[in-house]
Structures are given as C-alpha cells and as structure tokens.
Amino acid sequence: MTTALPDIERALRLLHLSGVRDTLETRVLQAQGTQQPFLETFALILQDELDRRHSRLIERRYQQSGLEEKLTLTEFDWSFNPRLPRQACFQLHTLKFIAEGSNALIIGKPGTGKSHVAKAIAYQAVLQGYKVQYLETDDFFNRYVLSPPAQRETRLRAILDGDLLVLDDLFLSRTIPDDAGALLQMLIHQRYKLRRSVVVTSNRVVQDWGAYLGDNTMSTTILDRLMHHCHLLEFDGRSYRLKEAAETLARKTKES
Ligand SMILES: Nc1ncnc2c1ncn2[C@@H]1O[C@H](COP(=O)(O)OP(=O)(O)O)[C@@H](O)[C@H]1O
Ligand SMILES: [Mg+2]
C-alpha cells in the first residue's frame, strides 16, 4: 500500500479528488488497525469527498451572497425587545418561505434587529445550499446607476437568479437615484413572476413608500407584487444600537 501511495495521490490530483487526498492516510491507518472490510473503507472515502465538496459549495455560496458576517439567531437577545415577532422570525428561519416562493417584509424602528434577523435568515439559507443575494439597498442603487451597461446586466442576472434576495434598509436615505425606482419595480416584478423570494427590511412604513419613490402608482405596483404572498413582521421596541452606545459611554466615563 505504502509504495502505491504516491501513484494514488497523483491520480487523485488529476481527478480533482482533494477530499479523498486529505483523508486517505487516515482512512488507510483506520482500515489497517481494525481490519475494516474494503467496501466500508471505500464508502468512508467517498463520503469524505462528498463532505469536502459540500463545504466548498457552502463557502462559495457565502462568498457570492454579499453577506459580510455570519450572523445567526443564537446571539439574538429576545428579552431586550419582548414585543418582537419571535415566532414569525423562527418561522422564516425554517426557510419554508423560500420553498413556497413567498416574501417577507420586516418593518419597524431603527436598531430593533431587522437587519440582524434578515442576515441570520440569509446565512441560514446559504448553509442550506440556497443561492442568496444580500444587498444593502442604498449602496446597491448608488453603485448600479454608476456602473456601465455590461456590468449592470451581470449584476442583475445574479440578483434575479438567486433563490433569495435580501433588500436591507430600503429607503434608509429618503432619496433614491433617478433610475432606482424603475429598477426596484423591475426586480420585484421579475422575481414575483418567477416566484422567487424577497426579504425587505425598512424603517419606513409602506404608506410612505410612494413619497420616497416620488411615484404613488409605482409604489402600489411594487407593494402589490411584494405583498401578494408575504410574511409581514413589525419590529417595535428600543434601539439595541443606542443601548450599546450608552454602555460604551458609561464604560468610558467610569474609566476616565
Ligand atoms: N435583540 C438583539 N439582540 C442582540 N443584538 C441585537 C438585538 N437587536 C439588535 N442587535 C444588534 O444591534 C445592532 C443594530 O441592529 P440592526 O439589526 O442593524 O437593526 P435595524 O436593522 O432594525 O436598524 C446590530 O449590531 C445587531 O446585531
Ligand atoms: Mg437595518
């Protein structure tokens, strides 16, 4: 066996079986030590390759998602704002809404955890192998309107193709670039036709969207599609950001 190892390693490299390559020596030792039947060893080796490919796929999905942190609901403190729709958040976290092709609209006060929950759901979707696009909406709009047509098209394709699109902090700034309203309408309309899920978070109540878009008809069209199959979550409560800022300030005052 030992003499054949370099040949096997070369073959594994040629066949791009890096998962097998990484664990082969261990599996050989394991089999020798326990007189494991060949098929059992072979099955373990194949599983090593499958595991490696799966974790690579998940890592790739994460890199492509636009998420910059791996947030989960584990670190979320539900006692801080007891009125948050906890059950509805966990319901979304099951990701059934993606399979159904329905949407979620998370509206409420700043700092109450809307983005945190949306990112945690998006990350859970990545872990389950879904194609996710997370966008900080303002930043996306600004970059999009400045980018050349070819780049716009590639970007749009990824956004329309994904299983889940997260538009975080929609209308954070009260004004959006000229073409952004039409872009938003097109995105929501296309994904609606394809029954692909969208999660939107916003500090702005839907009644005001027309004003931010500068077009009430467009706002109605967007909301009509978005809310047809939709989970509505309202986040009411205190700002966790302010709590953190107050704690930092208190610490600094104590230190000085
Ligand atoms: N209940 C909570 N438990 C733990 N961290 C929280 C909670 N609510 C908010 N945060 C944290 O506070 C910060 C602001 O929350 P964020 O989700 O951005 O609020 P929003 O999007 O509603 O304005 C983030 O760092 C987030 O992780
Ligand atoms: Mg937010």
TrEMBL record:
Gene3D superfamilies: P-loop containing nucleotide triphosphate hydrolases
Example of a GO MF term: ATP binding
CDD domains in UniProt: AAA
GO biological process: DNA replication
Keyword terms, alphabetized: ATP-binding, Nucleotide-binding
Stretches assigned to the AAA+ ATPase domain: 100-233
Family: Belongs to the IS21/IS1162 putative ATP-binding protein family.
Protein name: AAA family ATPase
Source taxon at top rank: Bacteria
